[in-house]
């Protein structure tokens, strides 16, 4: 193969090997060779020019973005040509590492050491294959699924030597297009002709997508028996069992898949989902941490993953009956907050995020768990005021924990307003956030219904001038939501009306008025509540020394 007109990028954090590999590539005839030592520099190089070959070491330094994370990001951002060959090289032949790389579908995976002849042969074969399938890869890169499907069909009909690869790509394209029946029609004859693991796996996934879960499970189990290292089969089992709500078997399958191939963010997210559905809060915590650690150096980096991890610790504490264990979880929470406060990954997050405010929202949750309701309320309200000043739009990452505390404290109206704000923003929420919001709303539903009934009765009585009945209804509402600011203001307002109707104000009524005023005056309130409180002060001044 002639490399003289080919542009080559080599990536390795070890300068001696980088120099050696550059010499090998030059000896093969390449004149345009760029050598860098980390993934970020490699991505920057890919933005400047399109390479024909990228040869990248798997490990690019402790705590740094690795080779397959670089590959994934480069492809998703369209920084490589459809015919670019991406070869991963490594001295590490451990199973999880190899599988982690294979999942990103590099064109080749070479184990160090290798000779110039071996490298030349492998690169040549990969390049010829890329050129032959360029029409498919071009359409895929443009997200033109119908054209990619048509290109695959044309190549298969032409009798290409890469028919197997075309069939695999075609199955994936059918799934993407929602043409599951077409995928099954293509795969079934292939399975009958010559059973191959990839065909069985693809057919199992097709059956799953067609909601034929029993058929999918049967195929996947058969493949697991034949090859226990087929993590794709375990993935299919986990998802089928999850959809059938067979959580114990779903947990077993996903744990096996992670044991074989632990470096997939998507797989870890599925594990989180299964654990949440089965109320396995310890597993949610462990997998949420894995998601954050895996994602923070990849294109999947998202502050929501870190927030989900923090949230999972407090969820575990909340559902733990043992006081010592709950205390341990809370200590773990504070340790985690301190550990990640200065994490360099936060600086690379695109979303505007205030770590201090979020930390205080979590503190409000901890205060609530410890029974310090007023402290939780004060902390949360301070956070909401800071958010209103700091942000033009409410940060999605803050919402689940804020709404959780609001509902726990009985601030149902505030929680509803914030939920509507999120809905109106049109932001797409991740699955963990949606699950957390739904769980909080469902858990508070009965108490919220009781509160709303009593509060509604109180408002109706008040508007009709039946102040005693209104007062009694608001007191019942307060029993359901002891620190709700709105109902406290309503009680204060009713009390003022009742005292005004008395010829001589009763001592008991004045004392109740003073107690409620003291309860409210030091409280940090939302603007709407503060305005109402200020409007009552002129009447309060007749009976209470107003500050």
From TrEMBL:
| Record carries keyword Membrane | no
Residue span, Response regulatory domain = 7-127
Question: Which InterPro entries does the annotation name?
Answer: CheY-like_superfamily, Sig_transdc_resp-reg_receiver, ST_Response_Regulator, TPR-like_helical_dom_sf, TPR_rpt
Sorted keywords for this record are: Phosphoprotein, TPR repeat
Q: Which residues carry this modification: 4-aspartylphosphate?
A: 57
- Per-repeat ranges for TPR: 231-264, 451-484
Name it: Response regulator receiver protein
| Species the sequence originates in | Paraglaciecola agarilytica NO2
The upper taxonomy is:
Bacteria, Pseudomonadati, Pseudomonadota, Gammaproteobacteria, Alteromonadales
């Amino acid at each position: 193969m002639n490399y003289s007109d080919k542009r080559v990028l080599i990536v390795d954090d070890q300068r001696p090997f980088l120099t050696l590999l550059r010499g090998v590539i030059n000896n093969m005839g390449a004149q345009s060779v760029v050598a860098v030592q980390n993934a970020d520099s490699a991505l920057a190089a890919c933005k400047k020019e399109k390479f024909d070959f990228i040869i990248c070491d798997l490990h690019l330094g402790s705590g740094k973005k690795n080779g397959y994370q670089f590959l994934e990001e480069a492809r998703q951002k369209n920084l490589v040509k459809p015919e670019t060959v991406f070869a991963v090289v490594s001295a590490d032949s451990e199973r999880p590492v190899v599988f982690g790389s294979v999942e990103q579908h590099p064109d080749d995976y070479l184990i160090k050491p290798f000779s110039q002849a071996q490298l030349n042969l492998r690169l040549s074969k990969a390049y010829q294959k890329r050129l032959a399938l360029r029409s498919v890869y071009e359409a895929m890169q443009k997200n033109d699924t119908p054209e990619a499907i048509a290109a695959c069909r044309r190549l298969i009909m032409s009798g290409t030597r890469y028919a197997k690869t075309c069939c695999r790509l075609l199955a994936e394209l059918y799934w993407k297009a929602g043409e599951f029946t077409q995928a099954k029609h293509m795969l079934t004859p292939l399975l009958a002709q010559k059973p191959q693991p990839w065909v069985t796996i693809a057919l199992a996934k097709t059956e799953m997508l067609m909601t034929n879960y029993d058929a999918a499970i049967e195929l996947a189990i058969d493949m697991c028996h034949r090859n226990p290292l087929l993590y794709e089969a375990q993935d299919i089992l986990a998802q089928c069992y999850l959809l059938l709500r067979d959580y114990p078997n779903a947990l077993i399958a996903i744990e096996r898949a992670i044991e074989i191939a632990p470096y997939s963010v998507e797989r870890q997210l599925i594990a989180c989902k299964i654990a949440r559905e089965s109320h396995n809060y310890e597993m949610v915590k462990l997998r949420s941490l894995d998601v954050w650690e895996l994602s923070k150096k990849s294109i999947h980096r998202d502050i929501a993953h870190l927030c989900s991890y923090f949230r999972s610790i407090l969820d575990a504490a909340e559902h733990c009956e043992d006081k010592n264990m709950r205390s341990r979880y809370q200590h773990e929470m504070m340790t985690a907050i301190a550990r990640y406060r200065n994490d360099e990954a936060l600086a690379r997050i695109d979303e505007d995020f205030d770590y201090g405010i979020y930390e205080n929202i979590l503190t409000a949750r901890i205060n609530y768990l410890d029974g310090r309701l007023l402290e939780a309320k004060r902390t949360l309200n301070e956070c909401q005021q800071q958010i209103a000043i700091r942000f033009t739009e409410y940060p999605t990452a803050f919402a689940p924990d804020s709404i959780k505390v609001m509902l726990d404290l009985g601030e149902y109206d505030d929680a509803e307003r914030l939920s509507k704000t999120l809905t109106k923003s049109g932001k797409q929420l991740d699955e963990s956030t949606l699950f957390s919001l739904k769980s909080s709303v469902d858990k508070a539903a009965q108490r919220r219904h009781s509160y709303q009934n009593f509060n509604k009765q109180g408002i109706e009585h008040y508007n009709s001038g039946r102040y005693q009945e209104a007062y009694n209804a608001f007191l019942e509402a307060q029993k359901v939501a002891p620190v709700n600011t709105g109902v406290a203001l309503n009680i204060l307002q009713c009390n003022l009306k009742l005292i005004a109707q008395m010829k001589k104000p009763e001592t008991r009524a004045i004392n109740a008025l003073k107690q409620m005023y003291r309860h409210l005056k030091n409280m940090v309130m939302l603007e709407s509540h503060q305005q109402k409180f200020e409007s009552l002060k002129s009447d309060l001044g007749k009976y209470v020394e107003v500050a």
